[in-house]
Amino acid sequence: MPLRAQRSNLKVGAIIAAAGSSRRMGGVDKIFAPLGGKPLLAWSGDTCQRCDLIQQVVITLSNSSLEQGRKLMKERGWSKASICLGGAQRQDSVREGLHLMKDCDWVLIHDGARPFLTVDLIRRGLEAARETGAAIAAVPVKDTIKLADDTGLVAETPQRDRLWTAQTPQIFKFDIITEAYNKLTTEVTDDAAAVERLGCKVKLYMGAYNNIKVATPEDLALAEAIVQETQSAMPAFGLRSKEEMRIGIGYDSHPLVPGCKLILAGVDIPYDRGLSGWSDADVATHAIIDALCGAADLGDTGTQFPPGEPEYEDISSLVLLSKTGELLRAKGFRVANIDTTIIAQRPKLTPFIPDMRNCISQALGIEPKQVTIKATTTDGLGFIGREEGIVAQSIALLQKESL
């Protein structure tokens, strides 16, 4: 069930940890440094304020920043927020924030120095955390990592495809994170490390490569460049200039043959024939992947998941669609809507459309109302009319996540 449907049963608090010393910023308090026309802290504060999944926000600040923080809270209209004095270390600040959480079921912890928090990151994090009670945003590393010994020589080269860079938000059940901090006796570099020491499993979910942490003047310059790039996008469909919309069109066809399953949009359709292909030959899902990849400048289905590769033989196309969703989120895109038409003479597909919409929406982590699927025939014309194959066409609209 989508998280939104259960919102009334879920109380979520957010802690924005912003009590750091900014020692690498050359005397500048990074939390209040200007970024895109407002203080850096205002970016994550505004996001938490407008996110209807969050009911309470606690912002931890250093003693020298308390007054400026209270002024900012009033100026920005953060009605959900309160401010408290942080501690000497980040984990001390989080402890102070936890003490102010009021009857929360879940706690989201975010670095105030990461300005590009989005509502989508929060929503997906809460959904991921339901699996184990703990989840953190992270991105796969792009570079090869070397472990060095004490002399500066390479000691080991870890397998890159298992390495992720941890980010925030990090989201936990309230009782798990409070127990973790109550039992913590040594320093940790993130909240997940405290939870891991309890023996709890922590779920990774896809963050965003632009979800950077500002720690140096160079980081602040990079953050400003990200803001400027996003805000310079041309207006489309009457949206604000900082929103970018992109449209993609997808197409796929496969032959109908005996002895194969007929799977369309992830649904197994009872029929005497099925579609033949390297994966499960799900033309509807393939067309959707094509449209999404086209809109995001990712090529097409064959580019991302080449036919003939052993790892994709007989694979469910919903798995490929889920991977496509991760690629989109890594580039900062979210799905606005998808419209797909399946063209088949037989069988009659209308009864299966609700299940198809659910399969596609679940694979992408979106709402079923964002997915439209239609079915039509060719009135007996062509290879489709002769029941030799099935075709699907799809159009997808993507939106660049607003900053």
Structure description:
The structure is a single chain. With 403 residues, the chain is an alpha/beta fold. It has twelve helices and 18 strands. A hairpin with a 2-residue loop joins strand 13 and strand 14. Helix 8 packs parallel to helix 10 and helix 10 crosses helix 11. It starts with 11 loop residues before the first strand and ends with a strand. The N terminus is likely disordered.
Structural class: alpha/beta
Residue share in helix: 25-40%
> Which H/E pattern describes the elements?
EEEHEHEHEHEEEEHHEHEEEEHHHEHEHE
Count of helices? 12
Q: How many strands in all? A: 18
The residue-averaged pLDDT reads 88
Query: How far apart are the first and last residues' alpha carbons, in Å?
Result: 28 Å
- Biggest β-sheet strands, sense, barrel: 7 strands, mixed
- Give the overall form: elongated
Radius of gyration: 24 Å
List keywords for this structure.
403 residues; 5-stranded mixed sheet; alpha/beta; 18 strands; 7-stranded mixed sheet; disordered N terminus; elongated
How would you concisely characterize the structure shown here?
With 403 residues, the protein is an alpha/beta fold. 30% of the residues lie in helices and 26% in strands.
How do the strands and helices of this protein lay out in sequence?
Elements lengths: L11 E7 L15 E2 L2 E2 H11 L5 E6 L4 H11 L4 E5 L4 H10 L6 E6 L7 H11 L4 E7 L6 E2 L5 E3 L7 E10 H9 L8 H6 L6 E4 L10 H15 L13 E13 L4 E3 L2 E3 L4 E2 L7 H13 L5 H4 L12 H14 L2 E11 L9 H12 L6 E6 L5 H4 L3 E12 L3
Parallel strand pairs: 1-4, 1-6, 4-5, 7-11, 16-17
Antiparallel strand pairs: 2-3, 6-10, 7-10, 8-9, 12-15, 12-18, 13-14, 16-18
